[in-house]
Write a structure and sequence with these properties.
Blueprint (H helix, E strand, L loop, with lengths): L1 H34 L3 E10 L5 E12 L3 E3 L1 H9 L3 H17 L6 E5 L2 H4 L4 H10 L8 E6 H4 L3 H13 L3 E7 L6 H6 L4 E4 L1 H6 L4 H16 L3 E4 L5 H9 L4 E2 L10 H10 L4
Parallel strand pairs: 2-4, 4-5, 5-6, 6-7, 7-8, 8-9
Antiparallel strand pairs: 1-2, 1-9, 2-3
Helix pairs in contact: 1-3, 2-3
Bound molecules: ligand C2E and calcium ion (3 copies).
The site of ligand C2E has 20 residues, from strand 2, helix 2 and strand 6.
Protein name: Diguanylate cyclase
Length: 274
Amino acid sequence: AKRQGRGMVRVFDESMDESIRFRRQIEGGLSGAIAKGELRLVYQPIVARDRLEVIGFEALVRWCSPEYGMVSPAMFIPIAEESNLIHELGDWVIDEAVKTLQTWPGQYVSVNFSPRQFRRHNFVGHVVERVTSAGVSPKRFQIEITETAIFDDVERAAETLFKLRQMGFRIALDDFGTGYSSLYNIRRFALDCLKIDRSFVDGMARERESAAIVHSIIHLGRALGMEVVAEGVETISQLQSLRLAGCSHLQGYYLARPMDAEAALTLAHAGFLA
Ligand code: C2E
Ligand code: CA
Ligand code: CA
Ligand code: CA
């Protein structure tokens, strides 16, 4: 038993070592990735329910590493988020998204911001400067944040969101329903858009609970005059249920996968999904 115990400890230690080493590698690689031009943005259409008009695109970052291949943001964003790398990466994302946006006829770009970026000192001034110095109207720039970003300092977040709104930025609450928002605070915050988390859309057909949550979010959003975007629409039956439920906007693989800037430009000019 003792031997087995020791063995287990060793296995555990080694896998810890392994994961720490991997982390460090990613961290090290990532800091060079921006300079070496290894990051890319892809754009996923956000469409209006009725005629599938493309009203915006969500920008999603990709790391094409010669060493590791395509690294998912789900892997490297949390690592970047634990260091100051997130700021450098985030600034690159803003600049790149703004450049692409300028080629589109009227759509907005929706950019993800991690909690640490959002809580950065003078976040508002920073974003305003980057967006407006490029000559882009904040009305075409949507800031996507999660509940986590705003709910541990509600007062400060409310102030930041208020200022951003005053400057004309669009604000979306991402992965809505998975965090800790209270309805009281939702009302206080200046929000343009609620994004229903993919897990609810996915569960809709199977579980009464998920369907009920989706319906509630749609009603809440409508009652408060917000756009509601359902994420992760993968099937035609999800599309139909969401339309029936009155969901105003849709995003997901069934409609369109994230695409490169060139394909997004073509689609932006077409204006509608075929
Ligand atoms: P998210 O903000 O919730 O983004 C939606 C994710 O769902 C994207 O994954 C997208 O490709 C994927 N997706 C879209 N439609 C479907 C669908 O129909 N089915 C399924 N199964 N998935 C779908 P992605 O690009 O891997 O991004 C993962 C996460 O990484 C994002 O989740 C976001 O939290 C983060 N992220 C991505 N780009 C950035 C960025 O530029 N900055 C920051 N801070 N975070 C980012
Ligand atoms: Ca998002
Ligand atoms: Ca999301
Ligand atoms: Ca998510």
